[in-house]
Amino acid sequence: LVARMRPFGTTIFAEMSALAVSTGAVNLGQGFPDTDGPPEMLAAAAEALRGGQNQYPPGPGIPALRTAVADHQRRFWGLEYDPDGQVLVTAGATEAIAATILALCEAGDEVVCFEPYYDSYAASIALAGAVRRPVTLRPAADGRYAFDPDELRAAFGPRTRLVLLNTPHNPTGKVFTVDELTLIAGLCQEHDVYAVTDEVYEHLVFTDAAGTHVPLATLPGMGERTLRISSAGKTFSCTGWKVGWVSGPARLVSAVTRVKQFLTFVNAAPLQPAVAVALALPDSYYDDFRAGMQQRRDQLVGGLVDAGFDVLTPEGTYFVTADIAPLGGRDGVEFCRALPERCGVVAVPTQVFYDDPEAGRRLIRFAFCKRPEMLTEAVTRLRALA
Ligand code: PMP
Ligand code: GLN
Fold first, then answer.
1. What is the per-residue pLDDT across 67-87, written as a single tens digit (0 to 9) for each?
2. Which atom of ligand 2 is found nearest the CA of 30?
3. Among the four 1, 139, 330, 370, which has the fewest Cβ within 10 Å?
4. Helix, strand, coil content of the chain in percent (nearest 5)
């Protein structure tokens, strides 16, 4: 294995899901729903499979999906992208992130990102031979995660090539505010760098959040330097389909396309028309999806508090982070490895998403994208810890 990939072992999600299977625990670790997405979407996929859409689709994605992606971004965020040249379909957001970094970063270039970060960020940056410059999100007095603006300013320098921003943020559930985004946008322009945004949870911002979801690309001067990434997996509960996309200025999307051609060439033909159908669903689908997830959030947050955890209520995503200190826990990795044996529940240690493990030592993450009866069962089991 090449030296730059040696620090990366098996992903924590694979390790913890395997542990859930081998112990029969309730799996609130890896973020995937335990119910299917919209029936219209599933029917469209079945029809495409039977209808012969089973060969290589066009490289950038089928026109119907690229059009649906552009329409969706206009409808929800007022963003204008030309389906021909400004939208590229990828194998999930994961491929979009990797291809984008590989397309934009020379070896030694720096990528500013916020830790804890989604695990593929560090690996994709390493694949490109680039260097990550993490800025730490920490629980603040108001119960939200925050970063120090000076730490962010200091992360920018002559080698900075891009900022990689995930909002709503996994694993913290933080939704970046307009003020925070404005600061980030200002620094991108001052240092003339690109922004790459991972917005896979764009439809999961709860009604009691401090703000709504604001794509960084909508801020003045940002459209021309932002590549915006999203995916069907979260919004339409089809994480196993791996259909994602990246949108942005034609010259940047063209650079990403160059790389993407040689990673996967094209993506699952029969799933693309189905995701196009899903994207065009009425607002009620999106509202119900969010409202259902908000109920589950409240159910799990309440249960975790009862079980004795210190909980930071998330403003978005389908994850909640909890501090294990009140339960006598000192290390999240140890705690999560023992949890299935102790009480039959799987969670993920947040620590592994920090460069500085101290910052997340006692934090663990639970996913609440599960049926209410599963959450009830998990909470009953967790109460036994006290
Ligand atoms: N980014 C974030 C923040 C995620 O949580 C995930 C997990 N789904 C991904 C990217 C990857 O998305 P996909 O499954 O579409 O590759
Ligand atoms: N995005 C999901 C999570 O954070 C799953 C990611 C994965 O399994 N690679 O849990």
1. 999 999 999 999 999 999 999
2. 10
3. 1
4. 45, 15, 40
- Could you give the CA distance from residue 93 to residue 96 in angstroms, rounded to a whole number? 5
- Among the bound ligands, name the one nearest to the CA of residue 200: 1
Ligand closest in space to the Cα of 117: 1
Model confidence at 386, pLDDT cuts 50, 70, 90, reads confident
Ligand 2 atom having least distance to the Cα of 17: 8
Architecture of domain 39-279 in this structure:
3-Layer(aba) Sandwich (3.40)
Q: Can you give the pLDDT at residue 374?
A: 97
* Atom number in ligand 1 closest to CA 96: 16
Task: Please compute the mean of the pLDDT values over residues 1-30 and round it to a whole number.
Answer: 92
Whole-complex ipTM: 0.97
Domain ranges of the chain: 3-30+284-383, 39-279
Nearest listed ligand to the Cα of residue 89: 1
CATH fold of 3-30+284-383 reads Aspartate Aminotransferase, domain 1 (3.90.1150)
State the distance from the centre of ligand 1 to the C-alpha of 326, rounded, in angstroms: 31
Q: Which of 17, 201, 231 to mutate to test the pocket of ligand 1 (most atoms within 8 A of CB)?
A: 231
- What is the rounded CA–CA span in Å between residue 34 and residue 15? 19
pLDDT 10s digits, 174-224: 999 999 999 999 999 999 999 999 999 999 999 999 999 999 999 999 999
Atom of ligand 1 nearest to the CA of 169: 3
Whole-number Å distance between alpha carbons of 326 and 79: 45
Q: Alpha-carbon distance 366 to 386, whole Å? A: 18
